[in-house]
User: Fold HNH domain-containing protein from Marinococcus halophilus.
Amino acid sequence: MKQAKSVGTCELCGREDVERTVHHLVPKDEGGTHGTTAWLCKACHRQVHALYSNKELAVRLNTIEQLRGDEKIWRFIKWIRKQRGEKRVKVRRSKTKKR
Assistant:
């Protein structure tokens, strides 16, 4: 299935005029296929999935507010907000992430 894309404001970092993809707040493989979604810029979307397991996203980080409140992603958000929208960002996986 092809990922839906659009240009607009990232719901996580707030950057404007960025290419965005649909993020399932509860991952599809955790039962969120028809659940709530959010439009995230590619950088934020990749970073969310690099830092957290699908189980962790489903159980404790299943809203934009919960994601923004988590320290690991918040440090990234503070940094990415200063970057140009078209900048390609390298994602680092968390050493503590469990699959």
Remarks:
- The domain at 5-80 is CATH 1.10.30 (DNA Binding (I), subunit A).
